[in-house]
Design a protein that fits this description.
The complex is a heterotrimer of chains A (137), B (79) and C (638). Chain A has helices spanning 15-25, 57-61, 88-92, 115-119; strands at residues 2-5, 36-40, 46-50, 67-70, 75-78, 125-128. With 137 residues, chain A is α+β, with helices and mostly antiparallel strands. Chain B has a five-stranded mixed beta sheet with strand order 2-1-5-3-4, with helices on one face. The model of chain B has no long low-confidence stretch (mean pLDDT 92). Chain C has 638 residues and is α+β, with helices and mostly antiparallel strands. A six-stranded mixed beta sheet of chain C has the order 2-1-6-3-4-5. In chain C, strands 8-7-12-9-10-11 form a six-stranded mixed beta sheet, sandwiched between helices. Chain C is globular and about 60 Å long. The model of chain C has no long low-confidence stretch (mean pLDDT 97). Classes of the chains: A alpha+beta (137), B alpha+beta (79), C alpha+beta (638).
């Protein structure tokens, strides 16, 4: 299972970011969301949702073994009891979607809770089966 | 043939949905235009800006096909 | 306090002093935010003889209670001051993403006082507030500056800017944000510019305090799922407000050539469908909105560079398009871009250019006045040159830079008879000769002719277009509905188009703040604001009110010459009837002045005292004021 991003459909509404922080932190605070929306304006005038694609590079890089597949979605999830917030995972992430936030116990990444796909009304974020892929990028 | 008309807002009250909260099933004879269908239902044409189906605007002289589902877009639904 | 940022900021631009104080909960509850905060503060603090472009005017920026809160489209931000166009209350709100950012930084109202000696911009990064030099930005276009500041400060910052028009004090200058959302009306951009504030840049990273987040989340989540399949969602997502162009032409309210007529030959070339086919690049949404009515576009005109802009939406199509004689959506989009970058309201701007085009047609404005250029209907090059003159207040541009009423005063020659404005602010995109409730709405509006104060077109359809009867109570009801959205500061389109009720919004407020908010309480705030800004207008401009609630002659007496509304006009007698009916239903006297009884009922006895001191208080109404002011429209029986 994965979140499929169709960037042509993203309108920059940030509903996904609101529901993400509500779900994970019990807060309304888009800047703590695991999904970031790139915006290229004035030209070409497009939005690009960016979030973890569950490639596992962070898990392989973590010196504490704090990142493993877990939960019903089998996403790569950071265990706060093992994480030291060293930031190696953030540097390693090949698409730069992990980040450290002063108020979060661990770096922030998507855990495939899928709430964003439930609120998105344009089809920019939908649930899809993962395509066949190599284990490393 | 049968067509389905859908709308929200004040127009919905005039449409009197019977399929779901928005949708009214309408049996029509021949191949009438939207204008003719709405007039026969006593829906004031001034309260319909256009029809909308299959992602396209349908002006009131459009002739729906059998089974077609057409949204009626009011000028403003509430107000 | 839940639901609010928590702090009010006052900035003295003369001394550089920045004062913060906690937002009083009583103030927040009484006025709800944005339009309410602005109305109260302007009334209380700005001297009645203050020059709108002078140091005593205040420039206020305020989100509302629902801004940033995961309520449906909690995106809006209010701006207010005294208007240079009308010399009355100025109130304009804007979508986009700046309102939520201000709440996340912790603020509920920012008040700019006095005038900065040098160009500056406001920089807010959570608790850091700075007045920074903006000399390097002065003179830049609005859109150009936002592009630059996103690079200079970072993508995380939300930016609002004025263009050269605001810097130069053009009366209808606007404020632009997010590459194409505006606080457009009333000349709020001119007041910001008069204070030498070129831009506002905000980053907020705090969490909004919420009383019952699970409750609020479920409430809005359920509304999202319910409205996704709503029949009108898809047309709105696809066309935005431009979907109204066809209806307006087919039903005779679309302004063509300065409102000379109301069916625009070639309107199909500037319709919502044409927009989607020809210029659309991306659907764009305000914060927290899932109907994404914003249309981000690219205009392509041979010989000109491609330009990107958000729009054109209905009003711009009506006023820069129809009213200026255009029939090509690329031209309208380009005109939109020109106005946005110069910092001109496309609505007043389009109306004023159309008015000038009629002046040119009649030989009142000449090629010599236009620096050798012309001002032909539908000509985009003429449009471009002329708006440049206005923004710079150069030559004849100066005559038109303060609205059509002022232009008509300067030009004479009967030009006032075709200036479509009320109280000095231009009509928005609706000709009202077959829509008398809408004319009443325009002419009783507190800020001048703006449909957003109450949109009454379908009320005219339901009540009968050819009668003045029954219009006034419905207009009053609508005039109390709209401020709900302007004070809560969320978009009205979920209510207007997708059957989300006002009660669902007050439910959201309850979850957010813990207040036992009801729709009755909120509507009372609306009526209170309405009377307060009426009193403010009278105190600044003298009375009686009836003297100011004046309709343009074309709308009253010049019958529409052709099209679906051929022969229609409102008629002075009908207009006077509606005005009298309006005042009676408002609890105002026959001269249009608020009475002590209605003001005290609304908790405004000091306003009654102020009016009385100035000889402006309405005479008591025998038998008392109506128990309920305003009446919801009941659909005609089938």
């Amino acid at each position: 299972m994965r979140i499929k991003v169709d960037r042509a459909r993203c309108t920059g509404c940030k509903l996904c970011q609101q529901i993400c922080t509500i779900e994970h932190y019990g807060e309304i605070n888009p800047k703590k969301a695991a999904i970031r929306i790139g915006a290229e304006f004035p030209e070409p005038g497009v939005f690009t949702p960016r979030l973890c694609v569950q490639c596992g590079a962070c898990a392989r890089a973590c010196p504490e073994g704090a990142i493993e597949r877990a939960g019903s979605a089998n996403a790569f999830v950071i265990d706060p009891s093992k994480c030291t917030n060293c930031g190696v995972c953030v540097e390693t992430c090949p698409i730069g979607v992990m980040y450290v936030h002063a108020d979060a116990p661990t770096p922030i990444k998507c855990d495939l809770c899928l709430k964003c796909t439930e609120v998105c009304n344009t089809g920019a974020l939908t649930v899809a089966d993962p395509p066949p892929r190599a284990t490393s990028r | 043939m049968v067509i389905y008309l859908r709308s929200g807002g004040r127009l919905r009250e005039r449409l009197r949905p019977d399929v779901d909260q928005y949708t009214r099933r309408v049996e029509v004879g021949g191949s009438p235009t939207l204008r003719e269908i709405l007039s026969a239902m006593d829906i004031p044409l001034a309260l319909v800006a256009f029809g909308f189906s299959d992602g396209k605007v349908r002006r009131l002289d459009y002739r729906p096909g059998d089974g077609e589902v057409i949204t009626l877009q009011p000028p403003v639904a509430g107000g | 306090m839940y639901g609010f940022g928590g702090t009010i900021v006052r900035i003295n631009l003369e001394t550089g002093e920045i004062r913060r104080s906690p937002t009083p909960e009583s103030f927040a509850r009484e006025w709800l935010g944005a339009r309410g905060f602005v109305a109260k503060t302007i009334y209380d603090e700005v001297p009645r003889d203050a020059d709108p472009l002078g140091p005593e005017n205040l420039f206020i920026v305020a989100p509302g209670v629902l801004t940033g809160s995961f309520a449906p489209c909690g995106s809006k931000l209010g701006f207010g001051c005294v208007s240079p166009l009308t010399n009355g209350h100025a109130d304009s709100n804007m979508g986009g993403h700046l309102g939520p950012e201000i709440k996340y930084a912790g603020y509920d109202m920012i008040v700019f006082e006095r005038i900065s000696p040098k160009p500056v911009y406001l920089f807010i990064d959570d608790d850091t507030i700075e007045i920074r030099p903006a000399g390097q930005y002065w003179g830049m276009g609005s859109l150009d500056l936002e592009t630059r500041m996103k690079k200079d400060l970072g993508e995380d910052f939300q930016i609002a800017t004025i263009g050269p028009a605001g810097e130069n004090g053009v009366g209808f200058a606007c404020i632009t944000h997010d590459f194409g959302r505006q606080a457009g009306r009333c000349g709020v951009g001119a007041v910001m510019g008069s204070k030498r504030v070129k831009a506002i840049a905000v980053r907020g990273t705090k969490s909004l305090p919420v009383h019952d987040l699970p409750g609020l989340t479920k409430h809005t989540y359920d509304i999202i799922q319910r409205t996704k399949p709503h029949p009108n969602m898809e047309p709105w997502q696809k066309y935005g407000t431009a979907l109204f162009v066809s209806w307006a032409n087919e039903h005779g309210c679309f302004p063509s050539r300065n409102f000379q007529t109301t069916y625009h030959e070639g309107w199909e070339g500037i319709s919502g469908e044409k927009l989607a086919e020809e210029v659309l690049v991306t659907h764009k949404a305000c914060f927290g909105c899932w109907m994404n009515c914003g249309k981000y576009s690219r205009a392509r005109i041979p010989g000109k560079p491609d330009t990107y802009l958000e729009g054109p939406e209905y009003e711009t199509i009506a006023l820069c398009g129809g009213s200026c004689g255009m029939t090509d959506i690329h031209h309208v989009a380009y005109a939109n871009y020109l106005c946005d970058n110069l910092g001109l309201d496309t609505m007043s701007g389009g109306n004023i250019v159309g008015f000038a085009m009629e002046c040119y047609e009649k030989g009142i404005v000449t090629k010599k006045d236009l620096e050798g250029h012309e001002l032909r209907w539908g000509n985009i090059d003429d449009f471009e040159h002329f708006v440049g003159m206005i923004a710079a207040r150069r030559g004849i541009g100066e005559v038109f830079a303060h609205g059509t009423r002022e232009a008509a005063r300067k030009l004479g020659k009967g030009t006032i008879t075709f200036a479509e404005q009320a109280k000095g602010m231009e009509f928005s995109g609706y000709d009202t000769r077959w829509y008398s409730a809408q004319l009443l709405s325009y002419c009783t509006s507190d800020i001048g002719a703006h449909h957003n104060r109450s949109w009454a077109i379908t009320a005219d359809i339901e009540l009968g277009q050819d009668t003045p009867v029954g219009k006034a109570p419905v207009v009053i009801y609508l005039q109390h509905i709209r401020p709900l959205f302007d004070t809560w500061c969320c978009c009205r389109l979920f209510w207007g188009e997708l059957d989300v009720t006002p009660e669902e919004h007050t439910d959201a407020i309850r979850y957010l703040t813990g207040w036992d908010m009801t729709i009755e309480e909120s509507m009372r705030v609306s009526e209170k604001i309405w009377n307060l800004t009426r009193a403010h207008y009278l105190e600044r401009n003298g009375g009686p009110g009836r003297k100011h609630d004046v309709a343009p002659l074309r709308q009253l007496e010049e019958a529409i010459p052709n099209g679906p509304a051929e022969g229609k006009k409102v008629g002075s007698e009908n207009f006077e009837y509606m005005l009298s009916d309006y005042y009676a239903n408002r609890g105002w006297d026959a001269e249009g002045n608020p009475t002590r009884e209605v003001l005290e009922t609304l908790g405004l006895p000091h306003v009654a005292d102020n009016l009385e001191k100035r000889g402006l208080l309405g005479r008591p109404i025998p038998g008392g004021i109506p128990k309920v002011r305003g009446q919801k429209l009941k659909p005609k029986a089938m």
